Amino acid sequence: MSSTAPQDTGRLWSVDEHLADILATVRPLEPIELQLLDAQGCVLVEDVTVPVALPPFDNSSMDGYAVRVADVAGASEEFPAVLTVIGDVAAGSGDLPTVGPGQAARIMTGAPLPPGAEAVVPVEWTDGGTGGGAATGMAAASEAPEGAEGEVRVHRPAEERAHVRARGSDVQAGDLALTAGTVLGPPQIALLAAIGRGTVRVRPRPRVVVMSTGSELVQPGEPLTEGRIYDSNSFALAAAARDAGAIAYRVGAVADEAETLRATIEDQLIRADLLVTTGGVSVGAYDVVKEALSSAGDEDEPGGGVDFRKLAMQPGKPQGFGSIGPDHTPLMALPGNPVSSYVSFEMFVRPAIRTLMGMEDVSRPSVRAVLKADQALRSPAARRQFLRGAYDPETGTVSPVGGAGSHLIAALAHADCLIVVPEDVTSAEPGTELEVVLLG
Question: Fewest 10 Å CB contacts: which of 46, 80, 336, 384?
């Protein structure tokens, strides 16, 4: 591979052109079969039908007594219906007693309605078998086994099917449970488990390897010597990749040596569906990413298909994108300033990750909001500017947070959105309506 730094073509790409190029290149990962919990957050690639009705049998929605409607007709506190208790029906019971005339079975929530019973009266409508006033609950079966025998006084009548969940009242066998394209969250995982699915076919979470470059970078927790700074980018981008739905692997900062970077990338290809670098993409003498990933190299080696561009945006003007290695693994090279790298991630890497996952909505949601500021926001001509902001959904306003500098990471930590100043606007006055990209 040639180590000669690539020449800048001079073309200025728009934000939309760069994103469109990425989304036209990145393809969703091939589906695999995963255990339910491993599939959380993934996109379903098959329609799932219900094999058995839910619930699979009539069951009680209350703790109380399973009764015949005629036996409790006209019951009141003054003239209770006195029934013989013939046993307990607990959740999971298989051998059920038959409720005959003048009889009741003590029943628990979720337990199957026994033969002969037509309704359930809550325990609070009875004396709980104590012979006293209204009960507030049932004695534990282990402590009072005699509670399943004797008599119970019922103080209210019950209509047929009262407090009974009918078989199939949730879903019927053969119903469509979930459609292909559904993102599996906790409720969907619960439904799959409830209908007996132990595995499901989905597009997996992409494996994203994040590495920052720069000989000046020190890992947090280590001593900070003169002229050095802590590596925050790899942590921020690995966390952002996880937030987007990926499995993120963070590689400690790579020194400004092209051969070292090439070797590191080659080592990481085996576990990467997407590689993200930060730093070394501008025009400096030590911008090692451009040197190591020059598109002048062999396309079968790392660096073969990576192009470096200038975008009409601020921050984040220098960008790199392409594919590397024998499997043509996508690589996105982001600038090194903390805010530049994070804004670049949100605009370009997050959509790539979610495309790999097969998501329909790949970008952050955006809204229109009225600018609330003490003075106008200045923006360079022909550049789309992204400023950190705080959005107030109640008033529909957005306020700038911190300055415009691409190194101001403290302000980024207090922002919940990005304020977008379009290319044709050089001064946005207070009261102007602008696009706001929501980061929450």
Answer: 46
Q: Are the C-beta atoms of 95 and 105 separated by less than 8 Å?
A: no
- Burial class of residue 42 in the structure, from the number of CB atoms within 10 Å of its CB (0-12 exposed, 13-18 middle, 19+ buried): buried
CA 89 distance to own-chain centroid: 40
Distance between CA atoms of residues 80 and 77, nearest Å: 5
Which DSSP string corresponds to 221-280? Answer: TS---TT-EE--HHHHHHHHHHHHT-EEEEEEEEPS-HHHHHHHHHHHGGG-SEEEEES-
**220: amino acid identity, one letter:** P
Closest CA to 21 of 30, 31, 8, 11: 11
Sign of CA dihedral 122, 124, 126, 129: positive
pLDDT digits (tens, 9 = 90+) for 241-283: 999 999 999 998 887 788 888 899 999 999 999 999 998 776 5
Phi and psi at residue 336, in whole multiples of 5°? -90, -20
Q: What is the CA radius of gyration of the chain?
A: 32
CB hemisphere CA count around 180 (13 angstroms): 7
- Torsion, Cα 177 182 186 192, to 10 degrees, reads 30
CA dihedral 421, 347, 334, 237 (to 10 degrees): 120
At 72 the three-state DSSP class reads helix
